[in-house]
Input
Amino acid sequence: MSISKYEDPEFYSNRELSWILFNQRVLSEARNKNNPLFERLKFLSITASNLDEFFMVRVASLKDMVNAGYTKTDIAGMTPTEQLQALNQVTHELVTQQYTTYNRSIIPQLPANGLKVIERHEKLTQKEGAYVDKYFEENVYPVLTPMAVDSSRPFPLIRNKSLNIGALVQKKEGDKELEFATVQVPSVLARIVPIPTGKEGETTVILLEEIIERNIHKLFLNYDIVCAYPFRIMRNADLSIEEDEAEDLLKEIERQLKKRQWGQAIRLEVEEGIDERLLDMIERELHIANEDIYRIDGPLDLTFLMKMYGLPGFDHLKERGYAEPQPVPELPAECDIFEKIRERDILLFHPYESFGPVVEFIRQAARDPEVLAIKQTLYRVSGNSPIIAALAQAAENGKQVSVLVELKARFDEENNIVWAKMLEKAGCHVIYGLVGLKTHSKITLVVRREEDGIRRYVHLGTGNYNDATAKLYTDIGLLTCASAIGEDATAVFNMLSGYSEPLGWNKLSVAPLWLKDRFLFLIGREKENALAGRGGHIIAKMNSLCDKDVIQALYEAAAAGVKIELIIRGICCLKTGLPGIGDRIKVRSIVGNFLEHSRIFYFENDGKAEYYCASADWMPRNLERRVEIMFPIDRPELQKKLMTILQMLLKDTVKAHILTPQGTYEKVDKRGKGTFNSQLAFCDMAVEAAKKQEELVNNRVFIPETHHE
Output
């Protein structure tokens, strides 16, 4: 294999720094005064939860590497130590930007819009103070566990992500030595506490930690409170599981989950102005380095803003143009879903179109006496999943039900353990994935007995079987009974349950063994076409791009003359504007009200265009360490729908950011282009399609059936 001229680290961006740029794009939506005020609150909350996860996983992983003496460089040529140093600077800057946005841009606008946030308990009026104190006595005090530290009581274990109030206290009598005390702000109570005003159209709220701080003297009756300040820590939450040695993966993950609460402390947030003596005690006990301390000018943990977004009475401050998920035109209510799939393949576009048909597909399969077996992979499911209920019902109805539950789905491990046990109790055969690999693919296979023999119905998707996130994430799904895909689906489940690799695939491309080579072949074919003077065009939409081999292939294709348009929401390690490539590679990121999650790939193929959707991003973990599936979209009318989606995303001038050759992201220059919000346009498109279908039904106009070949 020839060495690429794009080997040098200068051609790549660091993955972690690219992620910070993504979170800054989310923050830019919070800072954008054209967005409704409560939408800005929501985006600010998202930046905070994003940053928490980034620290618990990515920063924690880098710290582990440094502690282990690992010095290998990443694709951008940076060692773990260099990455941590660079991240330390940009994360502090990001947090400063978050709180500048909160303090200067958002909080001052709330009172004029009917919401007053009492930021400090000292600012309560006498009447408000009396209400708050009574609330503390009746609702908060019974839940709290105050903890003092002295010679007989060691420093308490501070839980990951918990909000705490630390205090310096002195005994009222006797020894006047300063002692440390702390109380956890209970997560079981609402953090936003409304204070009745008696005025219509006005809401006043205070944060729970302010109420506790105001009343903290009631928790330590024999002490004087010298000072009290909130603090919060972030711990290493990356699970390390030796699967080969774990006799029972379920039990091992349950054991490791408990450790997540007590992992190494990697970040400490404290209120700006904290008493230095108190900070020294916390810093010393938690073994926190000075650069990992974040002094916060405002309330710690801005994720509470999502709860504020949910306060009643503020719909006028939210985006109003987004429609509810619409019915899928090809699947009218009460229809026989198997009959409709036999007529034609059906492409689903969530959340603009309802996720209901996916749930209904499994429900009907569970009840249908002709259905013999249901097989499904589950990565992340909702808290009260109708899909889980349908699978359990299917097993109770005597069907063969096999479910692969991925226990290693990060931060959903506990949830998935609960579901796995419940499904086993109902009589389902539960598989816990392959050793060393996460099963991230989204596939359901229904085997049905029909007049002309056994027929296989398949659902393939780019997103999880989660009815809750399906209202917030944009994803593509395919319902088909094409025999070639049915055969492949059977092979996928045989591989997952019995470790039997098929000799070949009809239509599907599966990671970790075949998918990356398939992508490299498809990109290489466009390059060969361009070199032969036949042109070439790739459009690819995904969450992240950081696989070096794929990026090199894209550079080489673009250098040969292929036009490459990338729509990448998050991390992008590829650079634009390189010598010899120029503007033949363009990258845009869309950060809107819905989280762009679908993976769609278009290859021009010398006029015989090929379209694919997949569960995988172009990342080493997806292509080399996970079970992922890419599936083709072959029917011309569905290809047309996918191209419309891609073209509308490439036309967006409202929510799109463009990656510049300088490595920064800038909003689209609207001059001469007008304003076009792709997500709002998709909503309108779904509403229009649902209306047309309703008119067809009302006028009894029927579309002729077309059967699979």
